[in-house]
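Support request, please re-run this one:
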Amino acid sequence: MKYYYADPCDEVFVVYYDEAKKGYYPVFKEKYGEQPIFSIDLKEVSGKKENEALNKYMDPYGTGKKNIYMAGPLFNEGDRYSNQLNSDALRQKGYATFLPQEVVIDKDSSKLVKAACFYMDFKAINLCEIVVANCNGIDIDSGTAAEIGMCYALNKKIFAYKSDVRNYYNEDFKLNNFVGGLVDNKVYSNIGEIIEEIEKL
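Re-run finished. Output below.
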C-alpha cells in the first residue's frame, strides 16, 4: 500500500487510497477522523521505516485465534528478549500477538514513525481480547502501567507476568497496590501458566 503526505504543514497527516470506497482517507483515524480527503496536493511517503510503521498500524495483528497485546518494557536487550520469547510461545499456539518492539523508535526516528507507533499501540489495544503484561523490574514500567490501566477501562482480560523472583512490595501482590488491583492481584511467573489460563477462556 502507498501512503501520501496530505498537508505540508503537518508531517503526520498521511492518507491512503481506499480502492473499495474510491477515495483518499486519513491513516490515523484516531486523530483525523474517517471522512474522505478532497482537493489535496499529495506527496508519497518514501521512507522505508515510515512505510513499515504505517503498514504495521494498518494491520497490527494479522491472523490468529485471539488477538493478544504484549505490554511491557522494551528498553534493553533483556526486556526485548523476554517479550519476544513470550510472544513466540503464544504465536506457536496459534494466537495473533501485537509486539510493540517490532517497530522500533530511536533517536533518529521521524515524527511520522513516532506517531505511527503511538497510534498503532492505541489501535492494537482496542482490537485485542487479551493483554499479557510484562511487569518485571524494580517497579513496573510507566508505559506498561498506562497500558494496563487503559485495558482495565476497556474491560480487556489482563494477565500480569513477572519472572523476577524478588518481591518488592509484599509476598501476596508483588506489584504496586493499585496496579495489583487492576490485575486482580494475580501475577504469573511464566508464560506457560498464562497460556494454560488463556486456553480455558
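Residues 15 and 26 are 4 Å apart (CA to CA). The chain is about 35% helix and 15% strand.
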